[in-house]
Amino acid sequence: MVNETLGLLKDCQLPVERDNSQQHIAAIPQLSNLQVWFQRPKDIVKKLLSGDLDIGIVGFDTVSEFGQGNDDLIIVHNALGCGHCRLSLAIPKDGIFERINSVKELAQMSQWTAGKLLRVGTGLPNLACKFMKENGLKHVSFLTADGALEGFPQRGWADVILDLVSSGTPLMANNLKEIEGGTVLESQAFLVASRKSLIQWEDVRDTTRKILERVEAHLKADGQFKVTAYMSGSSVEEITERILSQPSLSGSQSPAVCQVFCQRDGKMVVDCYAIDICVPEKALYSSVQQLRAIGSSRVLVSPLTPRWQQLLAKLGL
After folding, report:
1. Do 80 and 8 meet the contact criterion of CB atoms below 8 Å apart?
2. What 3-state class would DSSP assign to 317?
3. d(C-alpha 234, C-alpha 115), whole Å
4. Any residues with CB less than 8 A from the CB of 121 and at least 6 apart, and which?
5. Which backbone phi and psi does 311 adopt, to 5 degrees?
6. Global pTM?
7. Is residue 72 a contact partner of residue 197, using CB atoms and an 8 Å limit?
8. Of 59, 79, 123, 245, which is least packed with CB atoms within 10 Å of its CB?
9. What pLDDT, in 10s, does the model give residues 110-121?
């Protein structure tokens, strides 16, 4: 994600000055009190939590794996518009998996028992374990590794992999396929920060505000609008499939779908689903029309607005 992130910062008038690609520490001249560290994604989250870093740009997948649920990690911006990928389950195209085309079919295979575990190669074991349990795959073992995993099944190190996918080309080159229901999450770059640093240090807050203002200005210049819609359905996956089946919506930036609850007969139940989508201005009208065509009861449109006041409210400042 390095090149995309550097491109984003340059577009935001915050170019990073780095002598060469092997240099791990650099600077942004426009922010004199800022030092830029080039780190592995998971190390960025870990260093934010330990206090070694104050601000970071990292993918939603990494935030979810290494920082989700930790109150000291605060999301400053959740749609930077770069680093798009998905965390997805991929299986071999042939052999015992030749007729397997969905996670449901994978879970129903008789091969996986307490004595014969399904071996999953992944770099995100927490997300992988949660996904497998939720989909009825009980007899599973995980081989955790960083880097390219596509070759693991051919080498006999794993049966399947759960890895980040962008173009899908490496999967095809290694005779692997994605299957129905196998997408764990959609990811893009997030701007995150240490809550403690933001509360304790005014200069960290000031630098964060400057970065956030530049990012928001860049996104506004791109004519992006936030569209919020409410829709009834059976599941998050079913709603997402309906959204991505529409031409104007399938190219949107990582639609976010979440449950909306209400109280009925003294119990909290799912009432409907809320969808947040970022779309360019030229596709705004057609996107709204297509959302209504697939069953949206309410559609709200607003320009992407500065998040600074929202962030201060979260910090209690």
Report:
1. yes
2. coil
3. 35
4. 142, 143, 145, 149, 152, 153, 157, 158, 160, 161, 162, 163
5. -65, -45
6. 0.70
7. no
8. 245
9. 999 999 999 999
